[in-house]
Amino acid sequence: MKLQELLEPLRFQKTQLKENPEVYSLEMDSRNITNGTVFICIKGYTVDGHDFAIQAEKQGAVAIIAERPLSVSIPVIIVKDSKRAMARLACHFYGNPTEKMHLIGVTGTNGKTTVTHLIERIMQDASKKTGLIGTMYTKIGDIEQETRNTTPESLPLQGLFKQMLEEQVDTVMMEVSSHALHMGRVRGCDFDVAVFTNLTQDHLDYHQSMEAYLYAKGLLFAQLGNTFSDKVAVLNADDPASLELARLTTVDVVTYGINEQADIKAENISITPAGTKFDLIAFGNRETISMKLIGMFSVYNALAATAAALVSNVSLPVIKESLQQIQGVAGRFEPVDEGQDFTVIVDYAHTGDSLENVLRTVKEFAKKQIIAIVGCGGDRDKTKRPIMAKIAVNYADRAIFTSDNPRSEDPEQIIKDMIAGVNKGEYITILDREQAINQAIKEANQNDIIVIAGKGHETYQDIGGKKHHFDDREVARMAIKKYKS
Ligand SMILES: CC(=O)N[C@H]1[C@@H](OP(=O)(O)OP(=O)(O)OC[C@H]2O[C@@H](n3ccc(=O)[nH]c3=O)[C@H](O)[C@@H]2O)O[C@H](CO)[C@@H](O)[C@@H]1O[C@H](C)C(=O)N[C@@H](C)C(=O)N[C@H](CCC(=O)O)C(=O)O
Ligand SMILES: Nc1ncnc2c1ncn2[C@@H]1O[C@H](COP(=O)(O)OP(=O)(O)OP(=O)(O)O)[C@@H](O)[C@H]1O
Ligand SMILES: N[C@H](CCC[C@H](N)C(=O)O)C(=O)O
Ligand SMILES: [Mg+2]
């Protein structure tokens, strides 16, 4: 594409170009620049991309998009907001790939990864070629690629969509984080369905207030387009935030829920350690579902996925079969079973609400003691720390506080922040996570349930910015073998 053509979406930026070079790639990272690149300077949280302009020119950049004039001899196109410009240019450069696919965005505090995986399974069973973008990885069909963010920045994101199209993907499920919405990473994405799971406290370090957090989530629904498009907003009727989200969109709204009136409902729910059974009522049709996923929160996730699939024209029998076949999602209520006479569950609960949901679920069928191993991430919302600690001691018979990615913070201080929410004697602290897991397993008795919360699928412990290999499931498995066989 020629530079002049690339710049067409920036219609209010009048730039006089003396030359019109061929553009082979767009880049937001100077380290990846080669001949024929247009470099977009982003002022980040850590460094300022504008500082790499000279380096970019040396490496072969043919033009630069920037928010201020720069001392280089290649054209500099000045924009008010380079992230906004980047989203527009990326969509244009890659040919607006999301207009050619069925794109389902899932937002909410908890359940995004789970719901996207449930929809993925349903779509695959409905013979769709799927793509998935989220916390654990991005996936094209069954091929996984590592990612840094749950929702990537607009430039890599649009490139990924283009790659998906080239690989004949027709349906994409994407987790849309509140950070991504607020930072404009999904600008230009043509969502067909937007799903809301729930809104509870998290990320207040970034959003500052629950209102601002809701506002960020709302951007997904506001982005759905005009009233008479065939787009759909899928909302959780039991979550009060849905009322506000419904106001923010002009497209059709389809609701799911258990307690309130909804288009897609679950009734007669029965939860056992082996799975969950419920009657699914979808637009008046009733089916009984028996699935392996456990807990009331799993029913919500199944309803959200059902709604998204139904509005995407998948039939109820296909959805039923998929939900019944799904074994679970890695690191979400994942049992570690080495034949021991107690239960070990690894779960990604890292918010108050998710921890409460998981512990409430195990409490419903616990025959003996519940042992909860809980930590809170460093460089993340500090206000959730005492809340998570309180929930752990309220539900568990024994709460062990430990480290979960302290990052740049002092692990002991994180635990101090946690114990501000509880009383002395209600918990023990074992800073080293491996030791905490070992101790819990060593002391476990028959029929106890150990919940190891917070890291789920993660395979590292971030201490001081360095990632050390750490996998709760591996550590638990080794401890069971060491102490219990
Ligand atoms: C706070 C935040 O969101 N930071 C994101 C941001 O990083 P940053 O602002 O620090 O970037 P930076 O290092 O200052 O770089 C600025 C610019 O200079 C460029 N650069 C940098 C170095 C260089 O040599 N040359 C160069 O050109 C960079 O490519 C970039 O364009 O831009 C990066 C690239 O897109 C992101 O990976 C990074 O996410 C970090 C890892 C992060 O932790 N983000 C969290 C808060 C986040 O977004 N989380 C949500 C999920 C939350 C949930 O659980 O729901 C998510 O969607 O991931
Ligand atoms: N619908 C739900 N409501 C409340 N808690 C849930 C729900 N679904 C899952 N959880 C809990 O939240 C944890 C995280 O689930 P999941 O990874 O699906 O959420 P997420 O929204 O993708 O999280 P993240 O923001 O970290 O990407 C699970 O391990 C479980 O404990
Ligand atoms: N996406 C979440 C994951 C938290 C997982 C937990 N293990 C932690 O490190 O706090 C976040 O970045 O806040
Ligand atoms: Mg996720």
TrEMBL record:
ATP binds at G108, T109, N110, G111, K112, T113, T114. Pathway: Cell wall biogenesis; peptidoglycan biosynthesis. PROSITE patterns: FOLYLPOLYGLU_SYNT_1. Carboxylation is probably crucial for Mg(2+) binding and, consequently, for the gamma-phosphate positioning of ATP. Meso-2,6-diaminopimelate binds at R380, D404, N405, P406, R407, G454, E458. It catalyses: UDP-N-acetyl-alpha-D-muramoyl-L-alanyl-D-glutamate + meso-2,6-diaminopimelate + ATP = UDP-N-acetyl-alpha-D-muramoyl-L-alanyl-gamma-D-glutamyl-meso-2,6-diaminopimelate + ADP + phosphate + H(+). Catalyzes the addition of meso-diaminopimelic acid to the nucleotide precursor UDP-N-acetylmuramoyl-L-alanyl-D-glutamate (UMAG) in the biosynthesis of bacterial cell-wall peptidoglycan. This is UDP-N-acetylmuramoyl-L-alanyl-D-glutamate--2,6-diaminopimelate ligase.
